[in-house]
Automatic annotation (TrEMBL):
Region Disordered, residue ranges: 238-273
Pfam families: TPM_phosphatase
TPM domain location: 53-165
The name this protein goes by in its record: TPM domain-containing protein
Bilayer-crossing regions: 178-198
Endpoints of the signal sequence: 1-28
Bias-annotated ranges (Gly residues): 242-273
InterPro entries cross-referenced by the UniProt entry: TPM_dom
Domain of life from the UniProt record: Bacteria
Lineage: Bacteria, Bacillati, Bacillota, Clostridia, Lachnospirales
Keywords from the UniProt entry: Membrane, Signal, Transmembrane, Transmembrane helix
Alphabetical list of Gene3D superfamilies matching this protein: 3.10.310.50
Length: 273
């Protein structure tokens, strides 16, 4: 009896301990801490740059470089660099942190989540119009190798420089996207060639069948023969009558559809490292 009691409540204790651990992870990065980590204020726009390095990834010189890379972006909105251990999802951590810290206006946040080993860029407002999901994915595709090598200073600096280049309308190379598109185009070309070969074979088979079908009646008619064996006459008296008919009609139905839409206040993209 005591053993079953202990097993039952041990399982309950472990379950609540697990939930408590997740709760601590979820609040490991808070908006209050981020808003206290301001390192620059743009006197013209009023927007600020924030640097919260909870995982201590940057040296003092690297922090200066990251700050300098963030400053041009404060022309368009609040900019933040954050490192730390997020919750179960880097995407949800970046989204919640950005929207809790900057619920109104334009903002962009670069998160290096050491728990999930993922880089995320999350943006809202004016910045999100340019630094959208596709651009965020492209930029993180370009920089994740620096994070894989442990060079987090260069990871952040290059991310903010490329974000600023996009905001200024300059071209940002995306070599990984090009390589992916190249492989996709090659696979599509192979598929089209395969379908073309199958279609060609079917057309050849259909043409051969049509030729044989056209020749068959000639062979049959050539062997037919008619012989007149007898002839009879039949008298049929005249009669009158009428016939009628009926007509009918049918109907049909038509249907419609529906449309709907939705949106979100921020968006972003990322890449694991």
């Amino acid at each position: 009896m005591n053993r079953s009691f202990l097993k039952k409540y041990s399982a309950v204790f472990l379950f609540f301990s697990f939930l408590l651990t997740l709760s601590f992870q979820s609040f490991a990065l808070s908006s209050d801490e981020l808003l206290q980590a301001s390192v620059y204020t743009n006197s013209s726009s009023g927007y600020k740059a924030y640097l919260l390095d909870e995982s201590d990834l940057l040296s003092s010189s690297e922090e200066t470089q990251v700050k300098e890379a963030m400053i041009p972006l404060t022309k368009y909105g609040n900019i933040a660099f954050v490192s730390g251990e997020g919750g179960y999802s880097a995407a949800s951590t970046a989204k919640d942190l950005l929207e809790d810290s900057f619920p109104n206006g334009s903002a962009s946040l670069l998160l290096i989540d050491m728990y999930n080993r993922e880089i995320r860029i999350q943006s809202s407002g004016t910045l999100y119009k340019t630094i959208n999901n596709h651009v965020a994915d492209s930029i993180t595709d370009n920089i994740y190798r620096y994070a894989s090598n442990g060079d987090f200073g260069k990871t952040a600096t290059m991310a903010f420089r490329q974000m600023n280049a996009k905001m200024e309308g300059r071209f940002v190379e995306t070599p990984m996207r090009w390589i992916s598109n190249l492989f996709l185009a090659a696979a599509l070309a192979l598929l089209l060639n395969f379908l073309w070969l199958i279609t060609g074979k079917r057309n050849e088979t259909a043409a051969a069948g049509a030729i044989l079908a056209a020749m068959a009646p000639d062979f049959i008619i050539a062997q037919r023969r008619k012989d007149l064996i007898s002839q009879n006459k039949l008298y049929v008296p005249r009669s009158s009558g009428s016939s009628g008919g009926s007509s009918g009609g049918g109907g049909g139905f038509s249907g419609g559809g529906f449309s709907g839409g939705g949106g979100h206040s921020s968006g972003g993209g990322g890449h694991r490292f």
